[in-house]
Design a protein that fits this description.
The protein has helices at 16-24, 76-88, 108-120, 131-140, 146-149, 152-170, 176-194, 201-210, 244-249, 282-290, 309-319, 358-363, 389-402; strands spanning 2-8, 29-32, 41-45, 48-52, 65-68, 73-75, 97-100, 104-106, 198-199, 214-222, 258-264, 267-269, 303-305, 307-308, 323-327, 337-346, 349-351, 365-372, 405-410, 418-420. The protein is of the alpha/beta class. Among the domains are: 2-98 and 200-253, Adenylosuccinate Synthetase, Chain A, domain 1; 104-194, Orthogonal Bundle (Adenylosuccinate Synthetase, subunit A, domain 2). It has a ten-stranded mixed β-sheet with strand order 9-7-5-2-10-1-11-15-19-20, sandwiched between helices. Strands 14, 16, 17 and 18 form a four-stranded mixed β-sheet that branches. A two-stranded antiparallel sheet has the order 3-4. A hairpin with a 2-residue loop joins β16 (337-346) and β17 (349-351). The protein starts with a strand and ends in an 8-residue tail after the last strand. Bound molecules: 6-O-phosphoryl inosine monophosphate and magnesium ion (MG). Residues 12-13, 39-40, 295-297 line the site of magnesium ion (MG).
Length: 428
């Protein structure tokens, strides 16, 4: 048995899709264990960008099994669209894509409530996909799981009760009877679509492990969006951290063999919330343009900033990351000078560990270390030794600051554009 968790170490959008696609070649099973279609994983397929939101990135390899486990919340319309798009591209998903019977379903009212809460509560800048409200119902013990969805009478009864519970918040936004009618009208189509995919994925994983299969767990979002360890309340409603694999997929902690962190060479975030290293100047604009930093799910421009080692050190700790893949280094190649945030300063106190206080997160000043730009081409380089010396120094300095080894460096969207810095690492 061999398992690897691949997760984001910042605020998502680190390039997990490409990394998972790269490593999927070596895996037998690729598993999504949390989040929903708020994720946007961009891959290159037949020379064109191809975005997946819910289906694991390994689906493009025909012989791999792809699991969406109990920790994920599922929008059936969106899953259907994705499956249809894959089918159109001649990617067969039948008998190799499986959805946990315990995964909770996102219903139309969750999406409406997501929008209402944004206007009413703290504005988080969510993707408005209904993610938070669906997880909230799971925690409230009124959620509808895939297995419940497939038992028509159970489903109808739960919808009736849930709509009574939701009536107050939905009042004035939508007519409950019309909404209910729509949900019931869509039921036959969606339940028929869902049925063949539903399985006991925790059991499937156990069987796979017994057969010595290689399993890759793919996170959505990043550690700073984690419900517990992120910039609360500006977080998503699930646990992308490595610990989330156990509860999100139904495997024991001793079954996790390795954790690979995906880290961008600079920092970005979409949505609201504290972001100490954010740049409002031409460097921020440069990174956004060069890195094509626009949300894959919502199209929103991403906020951009220098590398924040306080953030990544925090991620390295909470996930026990020993190995990292550094992405998008090529996007920094034309900068004259480069800064790295090494600590935060607030009211004359220096913080080296990521602070939990909202006030400190919001008002801390980044303490920067400065380095000269790379002064040379990075794009197209095939080995660490051939990178400009300043780029090599940048990588080594990041390793020192965050306390994990950068074993891979990605220099572009294509799967081949990856340098193996440490050739001795075997992922599985
Ligand atoms: P990938 O998998 C970047 C952000 C949203 C918002 C917050 C909560 O592409 O890395 P939600 O809709 O989840 O309730 O929104 O989380 N967010 C992401 N940001 N990449 C993602 O996924 C994200 N998924 C959610 O912008 O700030
Ligand atoms: Mg994203």
């Amino acid at each position: 048995m061999s398992t690897l968790v691949v997760l984001g170490t910042q605020w998502g959008d680190e390039g997990k899709g490409k990394v998972v696609h790269y490593l999927s070649r070596q895996a037998d099973y690729i598993v999504r264990y949390q989040g929903g279609n708020n994720a946007g994983h961009t891959l290159i397929f037949e020379d064109k960008p191809f975005v997946l939101h819910l289906v694991p990135s390994g689906v493009l390899f025909p012989e791999k099994y792809c699991l969406i486990t109990n920790g994920v919340v599922i929008d059936l319309e969106s899953l259907k669209e994705e499956v249809d798009a894959l089918t159109k591209k001649k990617v067969v998903v039948k008998n190799r894509l499986f959805v946990s019977e315990q995964a909770h379903i996102i219903l139309p009212y969750h999406k409406i409530i997501d929008g209402i809460l944004e206007d009413w509560n703290v504005k988080i800048g969510t993707t408005k996909k209904g993610i938070g409200p669906a997880y909230a119902d799971k925690v409230k013990r009124i959620g509808i799981r895939a297995v419940d969805y497939l038992e028509k009478d159970v489903f109808e009864d739960l919808i009736e009760k849930n709509l009574i519970e939701k009536a107050a918040i939905l009042k004035g936004k939508i007519d409950i009877e019309i909404l209910k009618k729509r949900i019931f009208e869509d039921y036959n189509k969606l339940s028929e679509f869902l049925r063949p995919f539903v399985a006991n994925t925790s059991f499937m994983l156990e069987e796979a492990m017994k057969e010595n299969k290689k399993i890759l767990f793919e996170s959505a979002q990043g550690t700073l969006l984690d419900l517990d360890f992120g910039t609360y309340p500006f977080v998503t409603s699930s646990n992308p951290i490595a610990g989330g694999v156990c509860s999100g997929a139904g495997i024991g902690p001793t079954k996790i063999n390795g954790v690979l962190g995906v880290v961008k060479a600079y920092t970005t975030r979409v949505g609201e919330g504290p972001f100490a290293v954010e740049l409002f100047d031409e460097v921020g604009d440069f990174l956004r343009k060069k890195g094509e930093e626009y949300g894959a799910t919502t199209g929103r421009p991403r906020r951009c900033g220098w590398f924040d080692s306080v953030v990544v050190r925090h991620s390295v700790r909470v996930n026990d990351i020993r190995n990292l893949i550094l992405t998008k280094l090529d996007c920094m190649e034309d900068l004259d000078k480069i800064k790295i945030c090494v600590a935060y300063k607030y009211k004359n106190k220096i913080y080296k560990e990521f602070p939990a206080s909202r006030t400190i997160q919001n008002y801390a000043e980044p303490v920067y270390e400065e380095m000269p730009g790379f002064q040379g081409k990075v794009k197209g380089v095939m080995s660490f030794e051939n990178l400009p010396v300043n780029a090599q120094r940048y990588i080594k300095r990041l390793e020192e600051l965050v306390g994990a080894s950068i074993d891979l460096v990605s220099l572009g969207r294509r799967r081949e554009e990856i340098i193996e810095v440490n050739k001795n690492v075997s992922w599985f």
